[in-house]
Description:
Shape: globular
Mean pLDDT: 95
CATH architecture: 4-Layer Sandwich
CATH superfamily: Aminohydrolase, N-terminal nucleophile (Ntn) domain
Number of domains: 1
Strand content: 25-35%
Strand order of the largest sheet: 3-2-4-1-10-9-11
Number of helices: 7
CATH class: Alpha Beta
Structural class: alpha+beta
CATH topology: Glutamine Phosphoribosylpyrophosphate, subunit 1, domain 1
Helix content: 10-25%
Low-confidence stretches: none
Number of strands: 13
Amino acid sequence: MCRHLAYLGPPRPLAELLTAPPHSLYEQSYTPTVNADGFGIGWYPPDDGAGPVRYRRAVPIWADANLPGLAAVISSGAVLAAVRSATPGTSHDESAAAPFALGRWLFSHNGAVDRWDLLPADTGEPLTAAELLGMEAHSDSALLWIMAGRRLTAGRSPGEALADVARRTLAARPAARLNFLLTDGNSIAATRHGDTLWYRPAGREVTVASSPDTDEPGWQEVPDHSLLLATRHTAEIAPL
């Protein structure tokens, strides 16, 4: 299983979010499960009109000698990051590492879908030639992002887009594990189906993560088969 995290709040160095916490995403790359098939970080620069910017590698996060220096000097008030454990049969280059991007959107998928290459036909929404050519990677996560991005482009809200993709996928693949994270730098939409998901609202910030990265109070578990919608000031949960 992969692990991921999204943060909205006052600008903080990436190191404070990803490597410094006692149960950080960095630590979650090797315990309790090993996520050594790459990692990615997406963040929004302080300029409101800029970003997002992505840094993705196909190596384990602990093997990137450049990351500590970068994480110490780059700050952001909106971050989405993930460490990857690849689904069998998917790409192993950095293009398969979340976050995936479309305009101001960043997306990550924690989970797996069996026979994912047949999913478009089985859900009744085959991909166009342009969408096939535009897939960043040969993976279940990249395909799910195409499906979600198609809905966002059509004007669906973030929650509607993720919930619809989850429902259609589960109808065709009941055993699929579908934990999604989606942000535009101002809000977070997330789903939990099959793996753990937690969130921690604290003043003017919110963190959503596969597992709590600190021992501080305030972490709340998102129920299975739920949709979470969060901003820096609010958090709402609804059934998928």
